[in-house]
């Protein structure tokens, strides 16, 4: 029962209940071009449960992960962890990183412009930012853990305000992924019919976080029971990158700091 109260924002591969979200995250890490990792100084903002350390750190010269709390995963020999409260990157020198990874983070940050200014500050000239965040068009319900979600045009405008050479692609899912997504949407739409006062949109975020977490995890549990084969068999390579449109699940941003 305690697992049902664990926030759905920090997920790992310990349960197939969250397999869809976990594999969606893994895909983004796998989509990073090796040239942005190999023998590079890499900084990850918001490392969460830390599975990226196992996926990426061994390829880098040094991998520095930051978050509000240290992940349970063991740190590889060439990796380090630093507590940070974003958007500030306190104690991180300017022009010091070849690559900054910021996956599923910016939607949690109230001052998104401050975060991007800090990322630009710590990147070396010619360094790359890789960033993902959900597409608002494809969100199934209000997420009280998110300060905001972005429409495609807003995402492009935000990134290009700080990185003129930024490109925004979309992360999409194949038929297996979209079958799960469709069943998830049907379940949540059915639950929403009981919210006759539209409390999910009216409650302050801090009051809605507990019910959201519980209902979201219960919903994923019942999806696992109902369509176990689909839920369990989703893999990271069931996702793919393609040109941006409003039907992508996430945005995949690649930006470069001008020399």
From TrEMBL:
Q: Does the keyword NAD apply?
A: no
Q: Does the keyword Methyltransferase apply?
A: yes
Which keywords describe this protein according to UniProt?
A: Methyltransferase, Transferase
> One Pfam family from the UniProt entry?
Methyltransf_23
Q: Which GO terms describe its molecular function?
A: methyltransferase activity
Q: Which domain of life is it from?
A: Bacteria
Q: Which Gene3D superfamilies match?
A: Vaccinia Virus protein VP39 (3.40.50.150)
Gene Ontology terms describing biological process = methylation
**Protein name as it appears in the record:** Class I SAM-dependent methyltransferase
What's the source species for this entry?
A: Chitinophaga eiseniae
